[in-house]
Design brief:
Blueprint: H1 10-20, H2 23-38, E1 43-44, E2 58-64, E3 67-73, H3 81-94, H4 104-107, E4 111-117, E5 121-122, H5 128-134, E6 141-146, E7 149-153, H6 164-175, E8 187-191, E9 193-197, E10 211-212
Antiparallel strand pairs: 1-10, 2-3, 2-4, 4-9, 5-8, 6-7, 6-8
Length: 214
């Protein structure tokens, strides 16, 4: 049966990214303040922006000298963006099973990145080759599902895995399946992100406006 290609609305995503404006200057301090406060070093960040109360889904990624130190996120918007950023920041710092909990000493050496996810777009395909041909390297985040197996890669992963076949092989391995696995029950969804990283903000705002609580 012939199946049509389903692609994210890149024009709409571009407009959404532009409309995001300086959201990173709000989201990154909230994430850092949440982690710092949990480590006994209270910080406060501005949380008054109305858009923080809208439903949202995000991933929070922690790195140290370019190496991953934690990454936890939400694929579907089920709570306010404010609550999602706080919860995922804490989970990335203290509950990523791949790493030991972050320490207060490490926090100053840790860079924070927040990725806001678009809505999911189900892909339609009749073979793995057909699916791979539809992927947009550098743009698509991908969710892989088969039975109870599930995994996802953010679009940033294309930086390490620029080849679509290699990207998919690692995605299947992450889900707990052989890298050459394929079956008719495989489901794929893709999404885009608006990414905000502390090192990419203006220096004066990299860790602000989070401030120590009196």
């Amino acid at each position: 049966m012939s199946k049509s290609h389903t692609k994210p609305d890149t024009a709409a995503n571009s407009g959404a990214n532009q409309a995001a404006g300086n959201k990173g200057h709000t989201l990154l301090p909230i994430a850092r303040a949440s982690i710092s406060t949990a480590l006994g070093r209270p910080l406060q960040a501005q949380e008054h922006e109305p858009w923080l109360q809208a439903s949202g889904a995000c991933f929070v990624t922690l790195t140290q000298r370019g190496q991953l130190r934690g990454c936890i996120g939400t694929l579907e918007a089920r709570r306010s963006l404010l609550a999602d950023v706080k919860a995922n920041a804490l989970a990335a710092a203290f509950a990523d099973p791949r790493f030991s909990p972050l320490t207060a000493f490490e926090l100053a050496q840790t860079e924070i990145e927040v990725s806001l996810l678009s809505a999911m777009h189900a892909m339609e395909f009749d073979s793995e080759a057909h699916a791979l041909a539809q992927l947009q390297p550098g743009m698509d985040g991908v969710v892989f599902e088969y039975a109870h197996y599930r995994s996802t890669f953010l679009p940033q992963v294309w930086e390490q895995l620029p080849n679509a076949a290699e990207f998919m092989a690692h995605l299947k391995h992450k889900a707990g399946l052989p890298s050459d696995f394929w079956a008719t029950g495989v489901r794929l969804q893709r999404y885009s992100v608006s990414k905000f990283k502390e090192s990419e903000l203006e220096p004066a705002s990299a860790h602000g406006p989070a401030k120590e609580k009196p």
